[in-house]
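call fold target=GNAT family N-acetyltransferase
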Amino acid sequence: MPDDVIENPAEHRFELALDGEDIAAAYYRIDENGDVVLTHTEVPYAYSGRGIGTRLATGVFDLIRASGRKAVLRCSFMAKFYTTHREYDDIVVG
């Protein structure tokens, strides 16, 4: 399985390629401030318990940081991830 999270702006999501055609995805919208509002995260059920969500979240936060943007957490999974990964304090604004 590839480890690279990519941004797919056309689909308004970040993607982590899994086996075959499967992907894990974090959906977003851009708000009026240009911030990335994370709204929903999906990991296929067959991949549950393998740390895929954590790999996706880490990649998403790293990409947002690298792009100079900020994150607004409206997704419960991303908000929970953030509570134990405070190294992203510099990019989370809400």
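return ok
The chain has one domain: 5-88. The domain at 5-88 is CATH 3.40.630.30 (Aminopeptidase).
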